[in-house]
Amino acid sequence: MSDRLLLRLHADGSLAWLAQDAQGRPLSGANAGVPPAETLTRVRRILVLVPAEQVLLLDTPRMSAQRAQFAKALPFALEDQLASPVEELHFALPERLNESRVPVAIVERNILRRWLERLARDGIRPDALIPETLALPPGCVVIEPDRALLRTAPAQAGACDLAALPDWLDLFAANAGEPVALDVLDFRSAPALSLPVAIAHYHERQRDPLAFFAAQLHAEPALNLLQGQFAPAHRHAPALRLWRNAAVLAAAAVLLLFVYYGVDCWRLASESARLDTAMRGVLHEGFPEMDNVAGDPRQLMDSALMRMRGGADAGGLLRVLNQIAPTLGSTTRMTLRSVEYHNATLELGLRAPDVPALDLMRERLANLPGLKVEVTAATSADNGIDGRLRIVAGAKP
After folding, report:
1. Which helix (H) or strand (E) holds 112?
2. For the chain, how many structural domains are there in total?
3. pTM score, whole prediction
4. Statement to judge: residues 50 and 124 lie in one domain
5. Rounded Cα–Cα distance for residues 79 and 42 (Å)
6. Among 181-190, 283-292, 340-349, 357-366, which stretch is predicted with the lowest mean pLDDT?
């Protein structure tokens, strides 16, 4: 069983194919025409090389680390560089945006649809569509009988006829800045071409360009034209069925969990109502006058018992007053105007001659053990300052 099937779709619609094993080794030479149906059925993954003339490769600065946001902004960022309206174009990005510059492949949507329709007529449903130039290593030129492919950088590639190749090489050399020696693979039987750039190696009379492409594709390129609305779904159908079954089981489990918790909540609510009725019965026996008072039975019971003891806060208030009385009575410059006590907090309204006197009283009271004292208000009055001191009993020293 072959692991990967590599096809090459030519501009005239003809096909060539080559099967590879799991290590990427070709199982045979390139074959012209459509692969047998048995091969298409048994192969794990199908890659199709499409004509590079129809695909624009470039790179652009990464505008966002989020791929979804970057994909939305990309067409408008490149709009000035494109001849066709962005609505008619399909933009392919890598799955991960790891570098500061992102490679992009751009193709017309109608052309991409025509390629998929052409393949579908022969029962071919590809997993990846890749421009031919991405099967070349950077710094490489492939010469065929009627055209040439060149890739001078990871996102700098193109295709042209042989007559225009010197001009394209001059253009790429000018853009490269530093001279780059190229590897040339010539798949013609004609003599070697004279090219206007530095040549590292010129390999003449090569055969089987598809086998050469397969040897370069150890790993699939980061750019696959089949993404977004063109993403293939057929290969994931078995997994989707498994996920669908798992989702059904998970939904059933969640439903049973809700039923269980619903029944448990109903049982606990019934038990709570029974206990509430029992507590109200005890409250009625001990304090029948509380029958018409709304509230929690336990709190009502605590309130009734507190009243019987004379109030829980009463003892606390007396202790605080007994503690601060000597300090308050030690001066005639201060007049006590009001006293409020609640939740172990005593609020004193004082008339003082000035703010320093009020702050001095606060400091003297704060020095008493177990009290926390703060000034909460100080307003001018006719004969001095009306201030308020908040005294919290039970504070740690």
Report:
1. helix 109-121
2. 3
3. 0.59
4. yes
5. 42
6. 283-292
